Amino acid sequence: MDIDNERSTRTRILSLLKREKQMSMSQISSRLGITKMAVFKHISGLESSGLIERSTVKRHVGRPTSIFRLTDSGRDRFVSSYAGMMKDLVSFLVENDQRDLVLQFLKERYSAIMERYEQELRPLSWEKRLDALTAMRDREGYMAELKSTPGGVHELIEFNCPVYQIASIMGEACDLENSLFRGALGATVQSTHRQVTGESYCRFLIHRPDRE
Questions:
Q1: Strand order through the sheet with 65-70
Q2: Highest CATH level, class, for 3-76
Q3: pLDDT digits (tens, 9 = 90+) for 133-153
Q4: 124: how many CB neighbours lie within 10 A of its CB?
Q5: Disulfide engineering: 190 pairs with which of 11, 150, 205, 207, CB 3.0-4.6 Å?
Q6: How high does pLDDT run on average in the chain?
């Protein structure tokens, strides 16, 4: 048995469910390009580990279908122990009247990130800039996808939020993310969905500047 391959497939299933929220076995099989029998084997292991759960959906015709989704433990797999420690640290500082100090730290951190983003993105054309930003965010663990909408507006959707633990205490972190995109892209950016408010993803609408 190839243990590394087994782990990789299970990680891909968890990532799919993180992105899509819920899926049937047939949908998982189709997306991963593996047999339903292989999916069933991995699903069984993930259920036994308490990382996913299933519900049954009845159809008007045919047999009921099993739908799978992440459990709380499954969602926690996308939060590192480092992130948990950071949440504890931020909580400690806020509870000890150091909220302004935490905010200063966040602003300086995002300022440094914006400078790095600008250096990489500004020399590129508009479309390549968006693709590069999406790739950068994906590498940084945000599970980012870019979608086009009518009227020159793009959707940047992030299915994972590495700063979720901090943002749950310091809502300003979400505003700084938005400012980061505006500064790095030189564009108007609207935040419409946030994971810290209970959505399954973060969604940003990016408006193409007139000069591009």
A1: 22-24, 65-70, 52-57
A2: mainly alpha
A3: 998 988 888 888 898 877 779
A4: 13
A5: 205
A6: 88
